[in-house]
Amino acid sequence: MELIEAIILSVLAASTPLLLAATGELVTERSGVLNLGVEGMMIVGAACGFGGAWLTGSIIVGALCGILAGTLMSLLFAGMALGLAVNQVATGLALTIFGTGLSGLIGAGFVGERITPAPHLYIPFITNIPLIGRILFGEDGFVYLSLALIAAVWWFLYRTRAGLIVRACGDNHVSAHALGYPVLRIRMYAVMFGGACAGLAGAYLPLAYTPFFIPGMTAGRGWIALALTVFASWRPGRLVIGAYLFGAVTILQLHAQGAGIGIPSQFMSSLPYLATVIVLVLLSRARTGGSTAPAALGTVFVPDR
Amino acid sequence: MMKKNLLAAAAALLLAGGATSSAIAADKLKVGFIYLGPVGDLGWTYQHELARQAVVKEFGDKIETTFLENIPEGPDAERAVEQLVRAGNKLIFTTSFGYMDPTLKVAKKYPNVHFEHCSGYKRDKNMSTYSARWYQGRYIQGEIAAKMSKAGVLGYIGSFPIPEVVSGINATMIGAQTVNPNIKVKIIWVNSWFDPGKEADAAKALLDQGADIIMQHTDSPAAMQIAGERGKLAFGQDSEMIKFGPKAQLTSILDTWAPYYIERVKAELDGTWKSGDTWGGLETKMFEMAPYTNMPDDVKKTAEDTQAAIAAGKLHPFKCPVVAQDGKDVECKGGDHLADDQILGMNFYVKGIDDKLPGK
């Protein structure tokens, strides 16, 4: 029983950065922009988040620094991909490479330093309830924030007029433009939201997960977040399930090895990507309305003036 | 930082090209270093950088050193090495396994320049290799772990199932079995040298499954830090990690390249440099053990005695008979212990490890 609780706690923590980054990317992609720079925005968020927390001693300041850094990175992307209408795939990849280098430069001053990680929630009595207490009421704030955020995104996309307009830009930018919506500005806001989320996701790593900064510490989580967005077929509900599934696979494969269960660890490590490919195949075979990719995803839009 | 160094190297290159007749360059021996990571990586590269600083301190203005950091393994490395040659470096240390072929290529091109390659197996008349017998340290750690573990279960985080890591696990187990024949080890491969998040997850999984000592063959201090958080014990890797677990670190294998680097630079200065292969251990201080901390005095004493015995050549971690997992003795090719080739190519688990080696 204790082991199950421990596993669930580890899964929650491992899934949170994936969920945060994928939430941002989901909104970005729903507006029709494919930003492959998630990994780069995350690692810069990690460097700035740690720097902020280390200098001020405040986790909240650190988180804000991470958000700001991610947003600035995404503005760079927006300037290129939206303003200058450069190829989105190339720009995104460049953003990742740039971010990896930049984070090393930013972080050079505080490699080897450590901070006190984000505190875990503690409500007297309630947190002590066996099994569910620590899982529901005993994690760090980021875990609950990530869930609140995806719920808010769901509400925004499906229950508000603004959300409908964002989706319209992603499905048919020409029509949205014809209706008089500022497609590029809306997309820029979506890209900025994506950057903010990626920055926060990156900052989560040094602020709560492993409280120190080392260059390259995101170790591919940005790419998993991208795969996750596809896996979820751009739907918030499925994104939550997917994030926890991906997190669970990562943690369970470690436990399987520790318990001596003979599944090759390389196979388990590749499972999230394998699952994404399978979902892509299933999606393309069963095209049921609305569940596939935003129709205008990744296409450049230059309004005729 | 890297850019600055590249610029410095480029400037040096220009100077060397433009002022061949000047006597300034002729007086000083120029020594170059190629690093895999940033000098602040707290691990592998950092330890090489410490050794470079020791060389500078030892020889003062008799030499001049340059380093290039963050050089990826592969073709880029060749350009970097060649750049150092053209800048007038006469002795060049390339400090990662993946620099082996690039170094060899450049070495063939410049027979008058001497090269030192870390942890590889290809040599030439102007290219030496050097590495350390880290398994000796693992044996000591195994002994300490078995004495300190209350549960009798060790947790081991592996990077990739390559001989260096496998021989480390085996040495740990053989050392631990001298204290507790029934000791168990749980092994988790993270399939990465460096992924702090995953290393932390692996440490958590091992602790959750009942291990109470964490050992690692990965590069970040994440596992140490988790052990500290949970009030458990752990061993560091490559460098001093006590900062990340002041109450957790028992000891750490420290890569101390300084004595070797100083010896080689001295040989170069004296004109006695010769190509060779150095696989040194505790006896030549090719690596050292961090201070034994967070353990009672008697355990500390045992560890120190074992360390002294290994250093004096009285104890070999792979002393025959070495029993493999299937219960059969491993052929003893090195007299009373396994031969170096058998350790360098180790691809089996010893008896007592209740797990399957990946790929076997």
TrEMBL record, chain A:
It is a multi-pass membrane protein. It comes from the Bacteria. The chain crosses the membrane at residues 37-56, 63-86, 92-112, 142-158, 188-206, 212-232, 239-256, 262-283. One of its GO terms (molecular function) is transmembrane transporter activity. InterPro entries: ABC_transp_permease. Signal peptide: none annotated. Keywords: Cell membrane, Membrane, Transmembrane, Transmembrane helix. It is found in: Cell membrane. GO terms for cellular component: plasma membrane. This is ABC transporter permease. It comes from Bradyrhizobium uaiense. The lineage of its organism: Bacteria, Pseudomonadati, Pseudomonadota, Alphaproteobacteria, Hyphomicrobiales.
From TrEMBL, chain B:
Residues 1-25 form the signal peptide. GO terms for cellular component: plasma membrane. InterPro entries: ABC-Purine-Binding, PnrA-like. Keywords: Signal. Residues 29-301 form the ABC transporter substrate-binding protein PnrA-like domain. Coiled coil: none annotated. PANTHER family: ABC TRANSPORTER SUBSTRATE-BINDING PROTEIN. This is BMP family ABC transporter substrate-binding protein. It comes from Bradyrhizobium uaiense. The lineage of its organism: Bacteria, Pseudomonadati, Pseudomonadota, Alphaproteobacteria, Hyphomicrobiales.
